[in-house]
Amino acid sequence: MDAIFFWLLAAGTVLASVGVIFQRNPMHSVVLLIASFCALSGLYVLLGAPFVAAIQIIIYAGAIMVLFLFVVMLLNVPTEDPVHGYHARLLGGAGPRRFGAVLSLLFAVQLFLVLRTLQMTPLPTDAQQPPSTVYDIGLRLFRDYAFAFEATSVLILVAMVGAIVLARREPR
Amino acid sequence: MPFGITPELIAQITIIGVVFFALQISAAVLVYMERKVAAFVQQRYGPYLVGPRGALQPLADILKLIMKEELRPKSADTLLFYAAPVLSATAAFAAFAVVPFGADTTFFGLLDRPVHLAAADVNVGLLVIFAITSMGVYGIVLAGWASNSKYSLLGGLRSSAQMISYEISYGLSFAAVIMLAGSLSLREIVDHQAGYWFGFIPQWYLFIQPVGFFIFLTAGIAETNRAPFDFPEAEQELVAGYHTEYSSMSFALFFLAEYVNMVTVSAVATDLFLGGWHGPFPLPAGFEWIWFFVKLFLLLFFYIWMRWTLPRYRYDQLMEFGWKWLLPLAVINLLVTAAVVVYGGF
Amino acid sequence: MLPDPTLNAYLLLSAVLFAIGTAGVFLRRNLITILLSVEIMLNAVNLTFVAVDRFRGVVDGQIIVFFVMTVAAAEAAVGLAIIIALFRHKESLNPDAFTSLKW
């Protein structure tokens, strides 16, 4: 039963991600990425991490993607326009781009070959290891990682101020 | 029984089916209730021609909506245009899936072991509701964008900005309840509200957290885009906001989504603050869900009453209220609750 | 019946997602799509953390995922603000249009 869900969700994630990078319209890319995140959240539930699954939807699919959506609607650029010039063709022309794509493919093949040589390690089932509770996570987060937690809150404040300053119109 | 199909499994599947159909029927009942209550508030009769006292009016409405022509603006983005109402309705139904509406029951001895009265009982239930509510924003913002029309876009953007602003106060208000109950599971929160003080005052969180209840209900009304926070779909200002260009079944899906969202917010408020299925006096075993429905009905009536009594907030007033008044209030509520829990030994 | 997914299956899926994200950064000439591909890569890393967590029976990986998501949110906010500022300047979302600092 787990296997069927894994294959369905994994196929969904990969297909949606491939769709993201091949869509012309950035709006469609954003919507496909939201679908990919929802499938990923299902995979987290399969891995016995319901808290991470919930915050994946709340933070990624529910907040970050809304931000992307708003910016895409604000800028309203339907598709990418080609840019001319020597420098543009040096790094952005068709040749270098295809080379980059081939590099990514090589990377994927390498990872695949490496992972195949490892021993197949089974994951514990729900009977052997129950899904993690929010209580455990909270305990570890606020005891051992308390400093990182506080530093992250400062980081978010800095990012908020920075985003507002960067995106405002210059006062005349 | 073959394939491990136990009576409990059949009962569980039946409960899921019952919840699904009950939600759809509740939308129809709410349509009728809204028109009748609106009529009595405005000192007129509501629908009274179709069926006894107009009770079959929702049926007439649904038939009309089904038989209308399905229109689409020529330059609308087809995929997103049709996906948006589906997304809205899906999010609305999915959020109710983790809301329990009755105590564990064996259906009067038909089953060997008691089964939970909820479509799905997860131990991070409140997080799931919050997550799916955040997904509900997409139906509206995609509808506004995909319609490729001025009124739709403005209505969609305003509505989604309102929803994500009030989500924060929504979350903070039930964070306080989580602190009191010590659990994210709605069933356990309801079970913490059993019992009575002095023998007759029920131990509902409404009495411990009145400010929290007010914040939750206000944020809930703003989340579902109902008056007095329904500027984005105000008829006088924006034609019809994000669902201007929709007709027939797509419009019916938005309509359905709005009413089911109302039911979900009221159901969660009942479970969190009003004690769920524990009432002032206990009912015989197997019938606790009656209390739940009585409280749900009272909250829904309150929703509809608010719509036809209060004037609408202007958009900037609405956003100012959400960020400058409700959010600080929710944070203070959370801090005070935390202090009481830690130092008061709750 | 299909066999249950092993740890290797999850790590492989994560590798594939990471490679898709990398390909997206190389192939697309639209700033927003490049940022989306970076988000895909971050999610692939999250999946690795959670899968190994399950294998080892601890929750530290999930906490790191929590921090990665927070940092991704901050980075997306600042990145999009920069894109808006750049768009106001040049009316284009193509990264090759911004060549003022080049030789």
What would CATH call the class of one domain in chain C?
Mainly Alpha
Write down the CATH topology of one domain in chain C. Answer: Helix Hairpins
Q: Which structural category fits the helices and strands of chain B?
A: mainly alpha
Shape, per Cα inertia axes of chain C: elongated
Enumerate the spans of chain C where pLDDT stays under 50 for 5 or more consecutive residues: none
Assembly state (oligomeric):
heterotrimer
Main beta sheet of chain B: strand number and arrangement? 2 strands, antiparallel
Helix count of chain B equals: 12
> In percent terms, what proportion of residues of chain B is strand?
under 5%
Greatest contact pair? A-C, 89 and 78 residues
**What fraction strand of chain C?**
under 5%
List the helices and strands and how they pair.
The complex is a heterotrimer of chains A (about 170), B (about 350) and C (about 100).
Chain A: H1 2-22, H2 26-46, H3 50-75, H4 86-92, H5 94-117, H6 134-143, H7 146-167
Chain B: H1 7-41, H2 57-67, H3 78-96, E1 102-105, E2 115-117, H4 125-146, H5 150-181, H6 186-191, E3 196-197, E4 201-202, H7 205-208, H8 210-223, H9 235-238, H10 248-273, H11 289-309, H12 315-344
Antiparallel strand pairs in B: 1-2, 3-4
Helix pairs in contact in B: 1-2, 1-10, 1-11, 2-10, 3-4, 3-10, 4-5, 5-8, 5-12, 8-10, 8-12, 10-11
Chain C: H1 7-27, H2 31-56, H3 60-90
Helix pairs in contact in C: 1-2, 2-3
Keywords:
heterotrimer, A: mainly alpha, Four Helix Bundle (Hemerythrin (Met), subunit A), 7 helices, globular, B: about 350 residues, mainly alpha, two-stranded antiparallel ribbon, 12 helices
Can you give a write-up of this model?
The complex is a heterotrimer of chains A (172), B (346) and C (103). Helices cover 76% and strands 0% of the residues of chain A. Chain A has 172 residues and is mainly alpha-helical. Chain A is globular, with a radius of gyration of 21 Å. Chain B has one domain (72-105, 120-344). In chain B, 65% of the residues lie in helices and 3% in strands. Chain B is built from 12 helices and 4 strands. Chain B has a two-stranded antiparallel sheet with strand order 1-2. Chain B has a two-stranded antiparallel sheet with strand order 3-4. Chain B is globular. The mean pLDDT of chain B is 85. Chain C is 76% helix and 0% strand. Chain C has helices at 7-27, 31-56, 60-90. The longest helix of chain C has 31 residues, at 60-90. The relative contact order of chain C is 0.12. Chains A and C meet through helix 1, helix 2, helix 3, helix 4 and helix 5 of A and helix 1, helix 2 and helix 3 of C.
